[in-house]
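job 3f2a | input accepted
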Amino acid sequence: MQRAVVLVALLAGTAHAGPTLPGGATISFGALELPSGATTPPAHYFNFAHCACSQPGAAGADYIEGTFAYQLRLAAGTMPVHRPLEIWVGTGCDDAATRASSCHQIASATIPDLSTIPAAGVTPAVPVFDLMEPEPSAETCEFRALASGEWAMADGDGDGTLDYFVGQPIATDAQAPPLPANFSAEPGPGSIDLAWTPPADLSDLATYQALCATVGGSPASTKPPPAAAYVTARNLCGEAQDVPLVPSPLEPGAPGLTPSQGLAELDPAFVCGQQLDPTATSMHLADLDGTGPFVVVVLAIDAAGNPAATYLYPAISAGAPAQPGCGCTASEPRATLGPLVMVALGLAAPLRARLRRFLALALLLHERVRRARVLDRLLHALQAVVLRLAAVLDE
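job 3f2a | predicted structure (395 res):
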């Protein structure tokens, strides 16, 4: 398999134990390599989504991110080493007492003869699932963070017992971070301002993102969404293992709702806002399509890309968008100042013409403040008075 080097060599964590190989030869780990064509960054590679998608039979043949490889290099000694090199995964695989319970061998990655390793090294492929679930009896992915690793092991003295070990620690994380609580929402001009109480433990939290949908199930933002900071099994390989949606009421006794399919599947097309500060207590959702109401899902995301999700209910309405030219919303009283000033400036005109002009301006004023109920009723009464006064003058 062709591979692309995506990370510099990680040698600081490599551990050696036991005797050297014949002639003083040694094995060392080099760079991490991901499959050619992989688009996920290394920081988001060993998470729950990749574990789920790399389970046997979980993804289709076109899924390419189910394995990884570390370069293995041989420093030759004074004589060729005709020994097999076994590849294992797990924790403490150099300890024969715990190896059977916490590790297992990747038989397909075995190098039959150490002497055949070229100067450029070899890159035996290891399934992500095996690394994240190294116990021999493991069948499904667990929600946990695990300090696992890849091990290269050999029988150095040829007595039938593994006694040469080189380990490469690899941190895996399939545990989603905690969610905030005590949500509130306030409407703004074409926007919604969310607030919350952050979780007490922020150690596994990197960022927040929100997904917004109309009650009809369409994306609610009028602009292209920010890139998703999370990875799910469904979006990665089509595996139907969706992140549970926890309900968060905005008020006691609020009527419930059912999030649309796009929200339930955390479709990245619905991302409508983000907060990159894990200590933040609020998020501004702008550029919403109209006033809603909208269904909002909030995600807490860790550094590995695992999301925890909650949906807010009832649906949330945004404020009316700002009107062009005045920098204000249609429901704000200052939107009416312009027409009223024009009326005041027309007092020197003949009474009848002035009244008719006032009526025309009142109709314009009515259109400008149609969303303000109190002013709307006032203008209707004013219009009736003007019409009556004009009729009296005509008589």
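job 3f2a | DSSP finds eight helices and 19 strands in the chain.
job 3f2a | closed
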